[in-house]
Every structure is written in structure tokens, then in C-alpha cells.
Amino acid sequence: MGIKGKVISTALILGAFGLAGAGLVATVEKYTRDQREASIIAARLRSLHAVIPPKIHDNDLLNDSILIDDPVFSAKFPTIVYRARNNGQPVAAAFETTAPEGYAGPIRLMIGIGIDGRLLGVRALEHRETPGLGDGIEVERSDWILRFSGRSIGDPPLSRWAVKKDGGVFDQFTGATITPRLVVNTVKKTLLYFNAHRDEVFARENHDEP
After folding, report:
1. Which pLDDT score, from 0 to 100, does residue 158 have?
2. Rounded to an integer, what distance in angstroms lies between the CA atom of residue 202 and that of residue 114?
3. In this structure, are residues 137 and 107 in contact, taking their beta carbons and an 8 Å threshold?
4. For residues 194 and 117, what is the distance between their CA atoms, to the nearest angstrom?
5. Which are the contacts of 83, defined by CB distance < 8 A and separation ≥ 6?
6. What is the CB neighbour count within 10 angstroms for residue 195?
7. For strand 107-114 and strand 89-99, is the pairing parallel, antiparallel, or unpaired?
């Protein structure tokens, strides 16, 4: 084989390696992306099941959701509502919403409400509150956030939906009032919205844009 032939042969080999490498990189990227997306979906389902027990519904919560655009909620962060149904009948809704005014940044919450207007559960999904002060909203560190379960507007009365420092029934944290106050107010606003818009929440088309 002459020099020219060797050059062509080498170029073809290098090209083949290049294509194989590019294909491998693309495959790895797709696998990593799929794994990441699967992890996100699994985490969201865990959060949903923490505030809406799987035993009370038979539909796919992730595929029965809407976006809410209302001044009650933050305009900067989207509020997603996942609707739970059993035999086609509404049984509960979970609001994934964000309180933007946290002490150290936004606090993202998942708030589950039964069709009767009672809270099924509340969980903090993400926050940047100061360690040691904002830990109280994390279910792994405190049972504070579990105390919302079973509450509703009227239990306690609306005027008592506040931390004790503000005349309400909910405990604040030692050395920290801003975080629990914000969570209580967000849960209260969400309950009020659901009570006023319950029929609309369940009647809107799936995945429609507000």
C-alpha cells in the first residue's frame, strides 16, 4: 500500500473511531438524561404520595395536572395542581407552590387538600433557610409540618391561622418566626383558594395553560 493509501486508510480508521466515540457520548448523555428525568419523576411522586395517600385515588397524578395563574400565588414561580380522582370522581388536590419571601430565599411546598377542604398533608420540597433555624419545616428533622394534617379553614378559625406570636395557634421556632409564619400563611392562602375554586380546579382541561 502506497503512502496515499495509508493516509486514506488511517483517515478512515480515525473517522470510524470518531463516529463510534460520538455515538457512545450521545448514548451516555441520553442514558444520563433519562436517569435524571426518572429520578425527578420518582421524587415528585414521593412528595405527592406524602400529601395524597395512593389508596384514595386510582388516577395518574402526574398526568392530571393544571397550572394556576392567580394573584394569590407567586407570579414568578408557577403553581401546579395535581388532581386526585377515584372512579372519575374528585377526591383531593395537591398544590405545588412557592412562597418567594423566605428569610433566605423561596420556599417550595407541596400541599394536599381533600375534597372536603381538609388538609391531607404539607411538605417542604425545597428551601434555603438558615440551617438550625429553618430545619423545623423539614419532616426529617421535626414533626412541626405534620401538624397541618386534618386542619381546615374553620379549624382553627381563620383569625387563628397564624403563628402564636401573631395571635394564632401554630408554634414558631426558637429564634425564628419568619419561616413558620410564611409557611402558615401560604397554607392558609392555598386552602382559601381551593375552597373558592374547587369546582374550577377539577373542571379545567388537563395540562391547559392558564
Report:
1. 96
2. 12
3. yes
4. 7
5. 59, 61, 64, 65, 66, 90, 92, 93, 201, 202
6. 13
7. antiparallel
Specify whether the CB–CB gap between 99 and 186 falls below 8 A.
yes
Please give the model's pTM, rounded to 2 decimal places. Answer: 0.79
8 Å CB contact between 86 and 68: no
**Rounded distance between C-alpha atoms, residue 197 and residue 210, angstroms:** 14
The contacts of residue 101 (CB under 8 Å, 6+ apart) are 182
In the chain, the amino acid numbered 48 is L
Answer for the pair 113, 119: CB distance below 8 angstroms, yes or no: yes
Pairing of strands 119-126, 65-68: unpaired
Enumerate helices (H) and strands (E) in the chain, giving the number of each. Answer: 2, 5
Q: How far is 96 from 81, CA to CA, in rounded Å?
A: 6
Distance CA(65)–CA(209), nearest Å, equals 10
Take residue 119 and report the three cell numbers written for it: 388538609
Segment holding 66, helix H or strand E: strand 65-68
> What is the spatial distance between Cα 125 and Cα 83, in angstroms, rounded to a whole number?
18
The residue extents of the domains of the chain are 1-51, 53-203
Question: What DSSP element (H or E) covers 30?
Answer: helix 3-51
Q: What is the mean pLDDT of each run of 10 residues along the chain (210 residues)?
A: 57 62 60 62 87 97 94 90 97 93 79 98 79 73 93 96 95 83 94 97 74
> Distance between CA atoms of 71 and 43, rounded to whole angstroms?
28
74 contacts 100 by C-beta, under 8 angstroms: yes
How far is residue 161's CA from residue 167's CA, in Å, rounded to a whole number?
8
